């Protein structure tokens, strides 16, 4: 049993050594036809890290030839399959900009956007690269409305929009949580800004019911904790938030609490007018 195990291990080492030797030989070779065949063979075998090394080496030699198009396309896919999505996005973009009439141009343009999408981070992280991805995918859809990738591209755009919406909602709720802490006064105005921004950016979001109610609550809290000279305009702003919320969500689960703050706000305004 042990003997057969070591025979298998030895065989694997021999194969690995042989592959490494072949790659080293190809890398040193000046026979670019041999390099081209070797790179394509590696690519078709799924050995993308080896393939891309050879594609990169032979690119200057084949520049301006028919083979250059295939090399560039395979190189881009080698980066993609190796998990280097930022690099594959670069190479796919370079491909369709260089070979706009290629039979692979449409696929390369889609893969440029798709690579950016694969490179985009988790919803809780910075979404700047996700913004680049959705712009690229939307541009692809606009330029190629009849593409076979249309349905999948639209699905990805929808998924990315949900990601942005979720990120914006989480940010708004974070600011709201900060208004509940010891230093809450520092965050009340900022929280209101995030609620307003969310409503403008995502007018049809299901989160608007909650966030518009929180606008009423936060605005009331800000007014109640303001200097007397600032209370009148801030209480009036609370009434505006309430009216917008009540008009849009008259049957909301938050309505009883909103009405309570509306009544308190009116009472406070009457007292302020008397004191003036």
Characterise this structure.
- There is one protein chain.
- The chain has 276 residues and is an all-alpha fold.
- It has a domain at 179-276: Serine Threonine Protein Phosphatase 5, Tetratricopeptide repeat (Alpha Horseshoe).
- It has twelve helices and no strands.
- α4 (66-81) packs antiparallel against α5, α7 (128-143) runs antiparallel to α8 and α9 (188-201) packs antiparallel against α10.
- The N and C termini lie far apart (98 Å).
- The relative contact order is 0.05.
- Residues 5-19 have low confidence and may be disordered.
What is the fold's blueprint, element by element?
Layout: H1 2-28, H2 32-44, H3 48-62, H4 66-81, H5 85-98, H6 105-119, H7 128-143, H8 150-178, H9 188-201, H10 208-224, H11 228-248, H12 255-275
């Amino acid at each position: 049993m042990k003997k057969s195990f070591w025979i298998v291990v030895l065989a694997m080492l021999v194969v690995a050594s042989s592959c490494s030797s072949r790659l080293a030989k190809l890398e040193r070779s000046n026979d670019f036809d041999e390099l081209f065949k070797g790179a394509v063979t590696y690519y078709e075998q799924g050995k993308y890290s080896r393939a891309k090394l050879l594609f990169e080496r032979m690119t200057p030699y084949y520049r301006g030839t028919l083979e250059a198009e295939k090399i560039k396309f395979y190189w881009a896919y080698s980066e993609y399959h190796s998990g280097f999505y930022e690099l594959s996005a670069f190479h796919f973009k370079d491909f369709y900009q260089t070979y706009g009439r290629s039979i692979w141009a449409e696929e390369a343009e889609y893969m440029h956007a798709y690579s950016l999408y694969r490179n985009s981070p988790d919803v809780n992280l910075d979404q700047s690269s996700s913004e680049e991805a959705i712009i690229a995918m939307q541009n692809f859809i606009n330029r190629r409305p009849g593409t076979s990738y249309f349905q999948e591209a639209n699905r990805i755009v929808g998924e990315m929009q949900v990601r942005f919406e979720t990120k914006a909602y989480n940010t708004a709720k974070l600011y709201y949580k900060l208004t509940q802490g010891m230093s809450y006064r520092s965050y009340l105005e900022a929280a209101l800004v995030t609620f307003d921004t969310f409503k403008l950016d995502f007018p049809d979001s299901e989160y608007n019911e909650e966030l518009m109610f929180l606008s009423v609550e936060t605005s009331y809290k800000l007014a109640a904790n303001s200097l007397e000279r600032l209370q009148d305009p801030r209480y009036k702003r609370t009434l505006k938030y309430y009216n917008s919320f009540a008009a849009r969500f008259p049957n909301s689960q938050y309505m009883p609490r909103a009405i309570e703050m509306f009544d308190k706000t009116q009472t406070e305004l009457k007292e302020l007018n008397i004191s003036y």
